[in-house]
Design brief:
Layout lengths: L2 H20 L1 H21 L9 H28 L1 H7 L4 H31 L7 H25 L6 H12 L1 H15 L5 H31 L1
Helix pairs in contact: 1-5, 2-3, 2-5, 3-5, 3-6, 3-8, 5-6, 5-9, 6-7, 6-8, 6-9, 8-9
């Protein structure tokens, strides 16, 4: 294993070890995401039926809102103990540190989505098992693009007083392409007659945006954190 991946692995393991002991971020994020889905279900579903394409939008709203909460809470720990400064000063590649933080966040959001997707299927009668592989690809790629930008911004704002306000203000406009692709691709699979070709198109578009966001984040993390 190269030094880059070894550093990324240790950073991710550190974050997951802290989370396993406290479960603070996971439980908070999961509770918030489930609450969002429940509120929308009581407001929209009538006589056991929801309007078309609503389920996909609500799923991604819950993912984006809960993901933003998770990013803020995860980096809040780094501020308390000044851990991020120690990581930056360590003799390690800074893109590797970013990669480890990103992987830890992806695993956390993946656990939240494991609960969210069946809940969406139950409350909104969404056909989540029609194309499970494509749905998983959409969720993975959409979450990757969203988390790639969010991890960078959360690290940048960790010492800023108004970070809780600034993070969504900076994050949401930039990740709009990823969110649109995720919603439209998921909606194509949740239709009464799933549109597989359209879902493939949005998956390809997500791959394109993910490549741009991850590359730019890896490229800018070191100079941004140095300044």
């Amino acid at each position: 294993m190269s030094a880059f991946f070894r550093v990324a692995w240790h950073v991710m393991r550190k974050d997951l070890t802290v989370e396993v002991r406290s479960k603070e971020v996971l439980l908070t994020t999961l509770f918030f995401a489930v609450s969002v889905v429940l509120v929308f279900s009581f407001a929209i579903v009538r006589e056991g039926r929801a309007p078309d394409d609503v389920a996909a939008g609500i799923l991604w709203v819950a993912i984006s809102f809960s993901g933003t909460l998770a990013m803020g809470r995860t980096f809040e720990r780094e501020r308390y103990n000044d851990t991020l400064r120690a990581l930056i000063l360590a003799p390690a590649e800074r893109p590797a540190i970013y990669t480890g933080k990103l992987l830890g966040l992806l695993l956390l959001l993946g656990l939240v989505e494991i609960v969210l997707v069946p809940l969406i299927g139950l409350l909104f009668n969404a056909p989540i098992l029609a194309y499970p592989g494509m749905l998983a690809a959409l969720l993975l790629l959409g979450t990757l693009g969203f988390a790639a930008v969010g991890t960078l911004f959360a690290a940048m704002l960790v010492r800023v007083r108004s970070r809780d306000t600034l993070l969504p203000v900076l994050l949401y406009p930039i990740t709009i392409p990823v969110m649109i692709a995720g919603v439209r691709g998921t909606a194509a699979l949740f239709q009464a007659a799933p549109d597989e070709s359209m879902a493939r198109f949005w998956i390809a578009l997500l791959i394109f945006w993910d490549a741009i966001f991850v590359t730019l984040a890896l490229w800018t993390f070191e100079p941004v954190m140095t300044e």
